[in-house]
Amino acid sequence: MENKDVVVSVKDLHVNFYNNNRCNRVLRGVSFDLKKRDIMCIVGESGCGKSVTANSIMGLLPELSRIESGSIDFYYQGRDIRIDRLKRKGKEMRELRGSGMAMIFQDPMTALNPVFTVGYQINEALMYHNQAKTKKEADQMAVQLLKDMGIPLPQQRVKEYPHQFSGGMCQRAMIAMAMSCRPKVLVADEPTTALDVTIQAQIFELMLELKNNNDTAILLITHDMGVVAELADRVAVMYMGNIVESGEARAILTRPAHPYTKALLDSIPVLGRGKGQKLEPIKGSTPDPYNRPKGCQFAPRCPYATKECETAMPGEQTIEEGHMCRCFHNLLKGEGI
Amino acid sequence: MAENRKNAANDTLIRVRGLKTWYPIKKGLFKRTAGYVKAVDNVDLDVYKGEILGVVGESGCGKTTLGKSILQLIQPYEGQVIYGAGEEGRDLMQMNKQELNQMRSRMQIVFQDPYSSLNPAFTIFKSMQEPLIRFGMKSKRERKEKIAGLLQAVNLPAEYMERYPNEFSGGQRQRIGIARALSVSPEFIVCDEAVSALDVSIQAQVLKLLKELKERYHLTYMFITHDLSVVEYISDRIVVMYLGHIVEVADTEELFANTLHPYTKALLSAIPIADINKRRKRIPLQGDVPSPVNPPAGCPFHPRCPECREECRKEAPKPATLVKDGRAHIVCCHQVQAEIS
Q: Does the N terminus or the C terminus of chain A have fewer Cβ atoms within 10 A?
């Protein structure tokens, strides 16, 4: 263990999906460290591998997929656990899931089981991980958890079914469930995409509280740059299965080094910049994952691309302390870095 | 033009007065009407010619219902939707089916989901020729030429008309949807969450296209979205809705610079801004949007309002109009009204 604060360390992760006799190389060498009390955001367009990264950490990859190479280390209770080597449905993985690491899913309405009460579903995790000895105790804890999440009338609400909850309340119940065993790592896969902005703000307040009270490391997956600016300590920008740039949120948002990050930031309207703000759309669309460009994945859409970019994927370069970029023509080069 | 636009009837394209779209809730064996979902309740609104009118609000606040009610795609319960300026204005609600069908060539809609709004069994040509046949373009060659021109207008090659929807990406389909709406040369287009389903990089392409087309064909848009940063970018005027009511209407710059309604303030503060130097204080709203079946008495926003007063619980506020530099800023709030007078 190099750094005491690192909770999850992903190194050179390759994941392939096998569908219809074709192989989709979804992740092509993803590396990052997740530190204690850190909120790390993964941003990117749909299909870039954000969710697959999250699911590999949780051991929730679909059936026809395989971690080809690379490693995921989880430092938990003084041990170093290789998640990539654990059986996905094995006993060890089950013990980790929920207690050591927990996940919040994108769509709260479908992630909860409609035929069980919300209280029952929270109890399940508590009982399985021996947080509560008796059912009565679990019930009390579930009520307390819902109360902490700011759900009104929790005594009554635990006995209700998910369909009686609104979207925001379902998501809060999910967070209650995820936090019930005080995990070290919380993976949130687009937790607020399905919610309204006022509800989204409430959920973010909750997540920040949890981070501060429990020292939880949060891996937040989003496609909204606004969310990144608001919450993230560190950011990883993904494109077609690679992390193309990562670093401190402020550095990435104010001085992006990768042309893709810059293009992404230039293409979104920012509130408060007024009607006349200039939007620069990224030309073309993301390539077909079965028919990828040979070299740098962004080369066909990149205004800076040269011959070199078409032949090979650039390696990881550290351009300044804690700021990594995969590009031959990183935009900070001119500044003497 | 800006000075006298407020009262200039010549500039209004659509006048909505007292529009109510209530969905009945049927109960029991005989489908007795047990109550109404008041999706749009008592809305007054003017749409001016050549403007982009943004409509924002949380889900379930009646944005889409308002758009569809104006186009008569949903039959409103009561009210007036007067299309046309001054003397020529005609109430769409009073028209019979034939007259209404004729009016359809003047107003069109672009739907939210580009995956379900194109028939998967039809080629693009087949999907797009229907409105043309409907409005009397008999010759197939003529139709082909027209569609080729339309596809080019939305930056797609004309050959694409022989393809099926499954061969296109979301952004391309949305552009086909826009081309289809344009095919009958409308004056007024309702864009119902037209960019919400698209990825950010594609969103910018479609937004830019919509702006260009507006200039080229002198269109008027009603742009419905929940994304305030998009609305700020594209609209001239913004309508904020809450629970079926309009709570604030103002020019874009005015609304952002001088926000009056407490709901708009909270909504603006809740939006994450993609600019790290602009972190500000949020005004947290408690709880969820109440059910439109049982809206709260008085001001619809009072249970969540941080500035709620006694009268807000009892009486619904009336719209108050502030005039600043000749432009109207309409707001529905007791607190604001008290401050003005």
A: N
Evaluate whether residue B45 is within a structural domain: yes
> In this complex, which of B200, B226, B282 lies closest to A196 when CB atoms are compared?
B226
Q: Please, are residues A24 and A203 in contact by the beta-carbon 8 Å criterion? A: no
Say whether B288 sits in a helix, a strand or coil. coil
Integer CA distances (angstroms), B85 to A93, A190, A300, B14, B82, in order: 68, 46, 49, 7, 8
In a domain, B332, yes or no: yes
- Residue A280 CA to residue A65 CA, distance in Å, equals 36
Q: How close, in Å, is residue A233 to chain B by CA atoms?
A: 11
Residues of A in contact with B226 (CB under 8 A): 196-197
Please tell me the distance in Å from A282's CA to the nearest CA on chain B. 6
What tokens were used for A252? 């990435």
Q: A151 touching B, CB under 8 A?
A: no
The alpha-carbon gap from A235 to the nearest alpha carbon of chain B, in Å, equals 12
Q: What is the CATH number of the domain that holds B98?
A: 3.40.50.300
The DSSP secondary structure of A267-334, one letter per residue, reads TS--TTS-TT----PPSS-PPPTTS--SS-TTGGG-TT--HHHHH-----EEEETTEEE--TT-TTGG
Q: Which of A45, A231, A271 sits opposite B200 (nearest CB)?
A: A45
Q: How many domains does chain B have?
A: 1
Residue B271 is assigned to a structural domain of this protein: yes
Determine, yes or no, domain membership for B336: yes
Contact (CB, 8 A) for B309 and B335: yes
Tokens of A173: 């119940």
CB atoms inside a 10 Å sphere around CB B155: 13
Contact B95, B141 (CB under 8 A): no
**Among chain A residues, CA nearest to B282:** A201
What's chain B's Rg over C-alpha atoms? Answer: 21
Render pLDDT for A292-327 as a digit per residue (tens, 0 to 9): 888 899 999 999 999 989 998 999 999 888 899 999
Return the half-sphere exposure (C-beta side, CA atoms, 13 A cut-off) of residue B134. Answer: 15
ipTM above 0.85, yes or no: no
Q: Distance between CA A82 and CA B179 in Å, rounded?
A: 53
Check CB contact under 8 Å for B58 and A197. Answer: yes
- Owning domain of residue B185: 8-340
State the residue for tokens 């830019």: B208
Summarised one tens digit per residue, pLDDT across range A238-294 is 999 999 999 999 999 999 999 999 999 999 888 878 777 888 888 888 888 888 888
